[in-house]
Amino acid sequence: MKHLIDPTDLTRQETDEIVALAQDIIANRAKYSEVCKGKKLATLFYEPSTRTRLSFTAAMMELGGNVLGFSDANSSSVSKGETVEDTVRVVGCFADIIAMRHHIEGAPLAATNVSRVPIINAGDGSHAHPTQTLTDLLTITRELGHLDNLTIGFCGDLRFGRTVHSLIKALSRYENVKIVLIAPDELRLPDYIKHDICDRNGMEYCEVTSIEEVMGELDILYMTRVQKERFLDEEEFDRVKDCFVLDAEKMALAKEKMAVLHPLPRVNEILKEVDADPRAAYFRQVENGKFVRMALICRLLEWANDDSKQNKGHDVVENADLACPNRKCICNCENVDKKFHLAEGGIYRCLYCDTKARQ
């Protein structure tokens, strides 16, 4: 059975297939209006969401299927102490496929340990958000026509931004993609992403501290919110915050054929004056999310009984001498087997959240 927990669970061929299917759905809506008739999607959202949950709901409904689940964990048996694995065992009796968002990193992966239906990770803590990544890839394809030979700037919170981490993983599969990392020192991209993903795959990258100095080079600008709560010093936040706000003046420095993406919600990092610019693609990006999730649901249901479609995963190491130091990891929050994998440089990382293991 195939699950989608991390963007790398899909091969490049499978990713391209889903993006192509989404484009066909856009062109032929009526053709797909009953392909999921009689099927049920369960949405298990343990933390608040507007776009992602409604996008999954709209996707399944437009495919002719039904939706069940919860949008508030406090209204479920979770409030009584039920574990993720037990919840999934129960919900799997009623649904054909499950989309899960959780504030605890690794929870959707833990769900795959026991699930008899496909699991889709709809975001787990600061770890991964693979369906947003598929949305981003579809948006880039529709805006620019290709995924190779691009220069993409990531701006804002690159340390904790799961959408940034997931998209960089996916883009590392494509040819001649250069990434420009635009962030304050406090929110720079984690070293393990740069080393394990960029360096390992020969992906060129550079780090800068302002949008203006690189704006003219970019094919895509991927904006995220610079979060005040991540700064220990409010004066330091005040010093850098305006460097990471996109306005019409900065847009004037960009290529004529460029696109601005944002996973939303935005706060003040993109001024409203940018919305009228034809290069502002972030609201088109929202609608693309529905179409790509329609394609993903179709493919995962199709692959559910295909023994050749399995998650490859890592070589798992179960070692009692290793521990995950991430307090927000599922292995430190619930009674799941602690699992690790050997990463680049002989470093062990937690299978659930990618945090470097401690001995």
Task: Please tell me about this protein's structure.
There is one protein chain. By secondary structure, the chain is an alpha/beta fold. It has 3 domains: 7-130 and 287-303, Aspartate/ornithine carbamoyltransferase (Rossmann fold), CATH 3.40.50; 143-283, Aspartate/ornithine carbamoyltransferase (Rossmann fold, 3-Layer(aba) Sandwich), CATH 3.40.50; 316-350, no CATH class. Helix content is 30%, strand content 15%. The protein contains 10 helices and 12 strands. Strands 7-6-5-8-9 form a 5-stranded parallel beta sheet, covered by helices on one side. It is globular, with a radius of gyration of 20 Å. The mean pLDDT is 91.
Relevant terms:
359 residues, alpha/beta, Rossmann fold, 3 domains, four-stranded parallel beta sheet, 12 strands, 15% strand
